Amino acid sequence: MLKDHGSSFEGKTVAISGSGNVAIYACEKATQLGAKVITMSDSNGYIVDNNGIDLALIKQLKEVQRKRISEYVAIHPEAEYHEGCRGVWNVKCDIALPCATQNELDGDAAKALVANGVIAVCEGANMPSTPEAITEFQNNGVLFGPAKATNAGGVATSALEMSQNSSRYNWKFEKVDKRLKRIMENIYKNSCEAAKKYGMEGNLVAGANIAGFLKVADAMMAQGIV
Question: Quick one: residue 103, left, alpha or beta (phi over 0 = left, psi -120 to 50 = alpha)?
């Protein structure tokens, strides 16, 4: 999506909500692609580290020690901790990746992100943006990757895992990552094409809905259901 609009993660500041599996590996991937992730959160509050999130520490706190994210500032006192997880969207960023809970990003949060110059939002949870937030992004030209398309990556990863299990072979991480990248590029392409075909070019929400419906309909037709 970014590449299609002449941009990338390189040099961008990224705000991420959550600190579970999706958020942790969204942070890892964004960092690999050249971004600086400055926020993460849990149900109690959020941290802001303008030097860039120490992901190794986050993994230690959340995956090993099962501690609250507030513990982060004990190791990095230059970072800030704030109570209340929704405040994470008031932090100035170029790209926002909501990876926590449903409806976490509402209309007011969307307005704050737009006012702070966000260029792209990509969902990493189950419908984290409310309809009001999505409308705010679309009305202000913010690139928006909807959960219906992006969450397909999780389903695709499960399918890749089943392929390995059925063949009794373990693929290296790089192979899985490469295959997943191709799958996600194809989902993006199909969403773009569906939106354009039905007169809503650039609207990935509509495109993902249409492309998803057509895929299910084609499968049903192939099985003889009319």
Answer: left
CB 19 within 8 A of CB 60: no
β pairing state of 95-98 and 80-83: unpaired
For the chain, what is the largest distance between any 2 Cα atoms, rounded to a whole number of angstroms? 63
Q: Is the pLDDT of residue 41 over 90?
A: yes
CA 58 to chain centre: 18
| DSSP H/E element including 134 | helix 131-139
Instruction: Give the model confidence (pLDDT) of 120-177 as tens digits.
Output: 999 999 999 999 999 999 999 999 999 999 988 888 888 888 888 888 888 898 998 9
In terms of pLDDT, which residue wins out, 225 or 120? Answer: 120
Q: Is the dihedral of CA 183, 217, 143, 4 positive or negative?
A: positive
| Residue 4, C-beta contacts closer than 8 angstroms, at least 6 positions apart | 192
Whether the model clears a pTM of 0.90, i.e. scores above it, the answer is yes
**Strand 13-17 vs strand 36-41: parallel, antiparallel, or unpaired?**
parallel
Render 129-177 in DSSP notation, one character per residue: B-HHHHHHHHHTT-EEE-HHHHTHHHHHHHHHHHHHHHHT-PPPHHHHH
Contact between 95 and 119 under an 8 Å Cβ cutoff? The reply is yes
Q: From the centroid of its chain, how far is CA 39?
A: 14
Query: And the tokens for 95?
Result: 């790209």
Distance CA 146, CA 121 (A): 9
In the three-class reduction of DSSP (H, G, I as helix; E, B as strand; rest coil), residue 43 is classed as coil
Residue 226's pLDDT is 64
- Residues 98 and 102: their CA atoms lie apart, in Å, by 9
Task: Please tell me what DSSP assigns to residue 5.
Answer: G
